[in-house]
Amino acid sequence: MPTAVTYPGVYIEEVPSGVRTIVGVPTSITAFVGFARRGPVDDPSRIQSWGDYDRRFGGLSQTSTLSYAVQQFFANGGADAIVVRVVHREGAGAASTATLTLGAGNKRLVLAAASPGEWANGLRVRIEGGDDVREAEPGENADQLFNLRVHDPASGTREDFLNLNVASSDEVIAVAEQSQLIRVTALGIGTSTAVTRRPPDPHGPADPGVDPLDPPEGVTGTFTAFTANGDDGADGTQAADDLIGSDADKEGIYALRDADIFNMLCIPPVTRDGTLDVTAIIGPAAKLCAEERAFLIVDPPDDWDDVAEARDNVDDYAIANRRNAAIYFPRINGPDPLAPGTTGTFPPCGAVAGLIARTDGERGVWKAPAGQDATLAGVSALSVALTDGENGQLNPLGINCLRTFEGVGHVVWGARTLDGADRNASEWKYVPIRRLALYIEESLYRGTRWAVFEPNDEPLWSQLRLNIGSFMHDLFRQGAFQGASPREAYFVKCDKETTTQSDRDKGIVNVLVGFAPLKPAEFVVLKISQIAGEREV
Known about the structure:
Layout: E1 30-34, E2 45-47, H1 50-57, H2 65-75, E3 81-85, E4 97-102, E5 107-113, E6 124-129, E7 145-152, E8 157-165, H3 169-176, E9 182-189, E10 195-197, E11 217-225, H4 240-244, E12 264-266, H5 278-292, E13 295-298, H6 307-313, E14 325-329, E15 332-335, E16 343-346, H7 349-362, E17 381-382, H8 388-394, E18 399-405, E19 409-413, H9 431-447, H10 458-477, H11 486-489, E20 490-493, H12 501-505, E21 512-515
Parallel strand pairs: 1-3, 1-12, 12-13, 13-14, 14-18
Antiparallel strand pairs: 2-3, 4-5, 5-9, 6-7, 6-11, 7-8, 10-11, 15-16, 15-17, 18-19, 20-21
Helix pairs in contact: 2-7
């Protein structure tokens, strides 16, 4: 408020400039939805490396196409992902459990796996108490302390929780909440059938053939294995309903409603040779992407094993909201780390999403993620080798081809949305144009919230023009638009023409933003002529 002028002198008053910087949102946070070996269920988990996935979701698994897609995403330049693990909801069992006895007081410690599924049925756990606790704080009663050690033999993951206090149930439960493997469900008086074993010497040589939590018979420490209660449900089969889930309950893809933002969505087929149903899965996923201003990467069906199959069946993907999706053909071949010396065939969505993220970082969201620089890492071959002529049949239909070029490698050689067939004449024909529009929409949506409930008149309109215009000008300077000048590249209009008196009476302010997008040069035509005749001397 204005400074009250009461005495002769100089007054200083800071006047707000009215400039509110609009910060561009991220462009390549990729959401993955599918079946993982372990991890939280229907909970969007942010990860930023393959190591994060390995720790939280159990690493690569032959039965998890999701795990391979995420690995290929990071291998191709992806840096930020959200993973939603789903399980088969019909018949999915509760988490495995284990019960151990703590010391002479006969306290009973009940553990459960951190997430449901068969993965935890082989978990091993050991407690050490009394003299075996070597790191007690001075003054603590060692008889009240114990160490808890957990081992997942399938993945090799080990976790150690030291100096837990038998007398503090809350402390034990809180510490175990940090675990990727277990949760403490009870700590009280009772009995246990756990086998008594002698803990191994932590400083002795390791025997690779022996479980580190299964030492020889002895007289101290307590060891047990988890019960086989965990169940992946219905003999391991999965259904489309598991991937889609319930919007009301935020299950499956709708768990992403709780994510702050995601820009791309990948849903790998349940099996490597599987295909996602267009009506049951692809359609709802594209609709979610349209609502969340995201982009869907679609894998080709497994039976698209030649050009004719792709050409004749692409109309199956003529879904609503197809402007927010793109399909890439064919599938990719590459080494399988779980089967050394062999090559597997994989859906390409993870590798393509990583390549798009890499392109965004190097060139910007307005650059088509295709061309000779759009090489795919970890790919040894393509399941179908395409010629220029075959590529020419598929590109006009909106199918983005993966190609192999000598001296270059395996590359993405197409940049069209599923609405990009020539016959559609869509303004959203190209992937970079659609993704740039989504980026601008989301950035302005978040960057203009301050205007809600402000007086709807010229001062507000001028601030909106200034702030949005500054954001668009920054994009122009980065080369995001066509045009040699800002006037040719974009416009921002917010005045009494866009916001009429009727709009103001309803509490509405309208801002009109337009831009001239850069369209990728799909076809480069060279005209070569030869000059005939004698040269004058």
